[in-house]
Amino acid sequence: MMKLDDVKKLHQKKYRGQFGFYLVEGEHLVLELVKAVRANAYSNASSAPSAESITLYITDDFEQKARALDSGFTLVNVTQKQMSQLSDTKTPQGIIACVPLPSSTAGATNTLEQVSDKHSNQALGHKDKQRYVYLHEVQDPGNLGTILRTLAWFDNFSLLLSPNSVDPFNSKVVRSSMGAIFHVPIELDVSLDALQTRFSRFAYLDMSGEAVTAPSFSDFDCYLFGNEARGVPKTALSAFNAKAYTIAGSGKIDSLNLASAVNTVSYTHLRAHET
């Protein structure tokens, strides 16, 4: 079990990487974590943490609720002062989980051949094909948390994050994801160069592209999104021979919020596979 002084350090990315843990704070998120761990245990998900590997720090006020969860987590009682030191909120609820980082974040594993096989399966009628959303240098924790909620809602999405993106295990991202981070496969530090070894067909959003409602929009392996300031580098789009699509709008403003764009694309993709 980690020392409390080390647990405090998990609010910093370098220590999350060093110790291999991140923090989940608040009653709602811990309840979502309990549900996710139980669901993954039933499905034998290899990357899911075991209940025994999670430590739950609680104040005396929260002890009864925590024990009623019957989570299987290791319970550690702390004082109100210690909880305040562990928390990054002004008014701690009195419950924080220390959770192992999922092993699936280590890097890309699917080859181009494997992705092609999945694409062929879909052509044969398999609608549960895994889809990939790639975010290039997204910086806003709130945006990333909202995107995770969207991908979890529509399911069968994996999230690929480029180098220089916000850490998804940042406490602000975890909080804004509302528990979705426990349900979406995530890979970190996936470079643009690495994408070409994994996927053959790419789509992205552009003001002058074909409508996302076009039937062809649902046929791609990987959907590329850049941050709002710079987008995806044009050199990469050209090298990937990426296909441009657009979300029709009034034209009164020049762009959608990144999270809103991913939400629209995900919903459109789902509807295409329902018809």
Features of this protein?
275 residues, alpha/beta, 60s Ribosomal Protein L30, Chain: A, Alpha/beta knot, 19% strand
What's the end-to-end separation, in Å? 51 Å
* Strand segment count: 10
Mean pLDDT, as a whole number? 85
Portion in helices: 25-40%
- The percent range for strand residues is 15-25%
Tally of helical runs: 11
State the CATH superfamily name of the largest domain: SPOUT methyltransferase, trefoil knot domain
Structural features, described:
This protein has 275 residues and is α/β, with parallel strands linked by helices. The protein has 2 domains: 4-101, 60s Ribosomal Protein L30, Chain: A, CATH 3.30.1330; 106-274, SPOUT methyltransferase, trefoil knot domain (Alpha/beta knot), CATH 3.40.1280.10. The protein contains 11 helices and 10 strands. It has helices spanning 4-8, 13-19, 27-43, 63-68, 80-86, 112-123, 141-154, 171-177, 192-195, 234-239, 258-274; strands at 21-25, 55-58, 74-77, 95-100, 131-136, 157-161, 186-187, 202-211, 222-226, 243-246. The strands form 2 sheets. It has a 6-stranded parallel β-sheet with strand order 7-6-5-9-8-10, covered by helices on one side. Strand 6, helix 8 and strand 7 form a beta-alpha-beta unit. Helix 7 (141-154) packs parallel to helix 8 and helix 7 (141-154) runs parallel beside helix 11 (258-274).
Summarize the structure.
37% of the residues lie in helices and 19% in strands. It is of the alpha/beta class.
List the topology elements.
Elements: H1 4-8, H2 13-19, E1 21-25, H3 27-43, E2 55-58, H4 63-68, E3 74-77, H5 80-86, E4 95-100, H6 112-123, E5 131-136, H7 141-154, E6 157-161, H8 171-177, E7 186-187, H9 192-195, E8 202-211, E9 222-226, H10 234-239, E10 243-246, H11 258-274
Parallel strand pairs: 2-3, 5-6, 5-9, 6-7, 8-9, 8-10
Antiparallel strand pairs: 1-4, 2-4
Helix pairs in contact: 7-8, 7-11
